[in-house]
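Worked example 3 (structure in, sequence out).
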């Protein structure tokens, strides 16, 4: 895991037996890890596959030295949405750096304030895989606990496309652009972490209800106050803005593009 202090050193990432080398620079005065360089691994792919395109930019899958990678291009965002898109990408970069030693989340390959590169995790999104094996959820709970121990709350585990079933049937979690990364484990942090857990249990209730324990059912029955308020007031407005204004939906696993 990288140190937040000033570092300049060559880094080596191994992906499926392949390697890519780049220089990464992190400084204390750089906002949101914005100096993590990606210049040496910028992808010269003539026609990458677009997974998602909206006012917040473009997400593509491309191939670098035979290795599939995911590229989030902030430069493709609308001018008025670019600050928000950059902040979301910086948040994802910060979260992935904290989780560099955790299996089941993408590896951060680079972030320079305009382009974020991360490793590609092959697999099917939850709504397609429909995992019914209780071991999948046992591993998913362990994955969430590893995030939380490192001071990261995903904050978007309610969305099925963010959960993958990888090629060996294990869970993986993607899309950390609204993750909590401050690392402070106070009362509010614990509330958010519990909501991460509750949303995973909702998926378990959908696909593997027979494996829910009594304690897990009790957690499902007691959403946090902010979650109840959100459902009662803000959720409809959010959907209206997200769909009408941004044309936004999470579909990395489906490969669809907004018209």
């Amino acid at each position: 895991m990288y140190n937040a202090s000033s570092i300049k050193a060559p880094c080596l990432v191994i992906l499926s037996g392949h390697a890519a080398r780049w220089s990464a620079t992190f400084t204390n005065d750089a906002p949101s890890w914005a100096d993590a360089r990606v210049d040496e691994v910028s992808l010269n792919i003539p026609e990458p596959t677009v997974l998602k395109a909206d006012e917040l930019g473009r997400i593509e899958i491309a191939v670098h030295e035979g290795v599939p990678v995911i590229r989030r291009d902030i430069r493709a965002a609308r001018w008025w949405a670019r600050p928000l898109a950059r902040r979301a990408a910086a948040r994802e970069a910060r979260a992935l750096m904290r989780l560099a030693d955790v299996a089941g989340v993408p590896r951060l390959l680079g972030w320079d304030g305009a382009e974020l590169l991360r490793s590609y995790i092959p697999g099917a999104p939850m709504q397609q895989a429909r995992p019914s094996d209780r071991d999948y959820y046992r591993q998913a709970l362990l994955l969430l606990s590893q995030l939380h121990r490192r001071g990261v709350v995903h904050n978007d585990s309610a969305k099925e496309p963010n959960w993958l079933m990888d090629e060996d049937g294990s869970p993986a979690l993607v899309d950390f652009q609204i993750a909590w990364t401050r690392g402070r484990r106070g009362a509010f942090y614990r509330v958010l972490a519990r909501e991460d857990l509750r949303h995973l249990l909702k998926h378990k209730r959908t696909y593997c209800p027979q494996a829910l324990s009594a304690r897990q059912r009790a957690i499902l029955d007691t959403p946090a106050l902010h979650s109840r308020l959100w459902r009662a007031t803000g959720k409809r407005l959010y959907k209206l803005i997200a769909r009408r204004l941004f044309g936004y939906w999470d579909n990395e696993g489906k490969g669809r593009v907004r018209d």
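Notes: The first strand starts at residue 7 and ends at 15. The two ends are 39 Å apart (CA to CA).
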